[in-house]
Records
---
Amino acid sequence: MPNLDFYAVDDDWPAVLDIVFGLTLFRVWEAYSRPGHDLREFRTTDEIVEAGEDYLMLLVTGAGPEPRIRRIDFAPGVSEAGFRYICEGWGLIQLHYGGFFKERELRWTHTNHNTEKRALTWAPTSPGIGDPAAWDWKAVTSASGRLNRAIRRLAVDKIGPRPVLPAAARLIDAADLRYVYGTGIHTTPSYGSTAR
């Protein structure tokens, strides 16, 4: 059960982060640093909310090596800062907050991680990330499952297979979001979309 797509907005995001820290299973980093800055590790929900961070990488404590923090240099003219860092590791769990986009689409918030099989398949293409065998895949999958089950328990509704957290449910009603397609639920239909 590595993947969970769910609807979350506003107060739902700190509630999800409280679960992450409350489980005491994870260390948490931003997936990408701000241009020109070091990559940050977060220790509290408040730190993440204050930073406005919406794309995180979770390390299951004791399940693998420290993440690889890799510098990315920008092409000339892309950014005055010139570089940023990314957080990499075969067994890291991604947590990405979708949020309300342009007041017409509530995008899925998402958790996911590699499986051992996928990591072993892709390891030759990214040797700098390390050896997938260094990870305790059973521990990664177990922690991911616990996180996903805890998030599901926050839900007050479902749209298809996707849990809807409380603030998202209120927004969906208030903004008349009815059409499910792409990576979320929208105010207007798209060809072939269906109303919920």
Note: The mean pLDDT is 94.
---
Amino acid sequence: MTNRVALVTGASRGIGERIAAYFAAEGYDLVLIARDGAKLSDVAEGLRHTHGVSVRWSAVDVCAFDAARAEVEGHIAAYGRLDVLVNSAGIFRFGTSAMTLDDFDALLATNVKAVHNLCAACRPALERSDRAHIFNISSITGVEAFAPVGGYGASKFALVGYGLALTKELLRSNIKVTTLCPDVVDTDMAAGSGLASEQMIAPDDMCRAIDFVLSLSPAAVLDQLVIKCRTMVERANVRG
């Protein structure tokens, strides 16, 4: 019997890297996607050595839609199956009304269109799994508006809406979809948040959230999970 297989984008660092390690520890074989080939190679070798799982990887930009799709389909064919897709790759830009169209296009391409492209590419293999799941990593900005990051929030709101619709569409194919919406997570992307490490959501909390969702019975559907940051909630209470 072959191992279950998980595909993780943005796997060279941050949330994606930590989620890849979680699935490796659970005995999943992996497909890892990220732009940084050198870092991704190190991550893949470390997971092979530590957990004894098979790891296939490609250094490809998820916004190179045709190339990314071809790489993913090749890896799935090599394994002969796919059970979990984690769309973790994403970018961040500040700005709302003053944001340039180029930055807005980049946000939508990476945070929304690339997710759609890989969901479509992976669907046939996921439909063959006995218990398939798609996890899309959105943000608290996908459910709550913040003045300085309207462009980023627009991309994450779009991802939430896409994920909720995808949940309803794919249930008939026995594929569950969960959109995770964390507040500030302790990764490189949060370097400008002004929060200390202990004030941010721990990256492992994302893995715990995924573990919880996967532990639910086949009858349970959790289409969206918001993970708030205590410090930010406390600040909002003070302002209120």
Note: The longest strand covers residues 175-182.
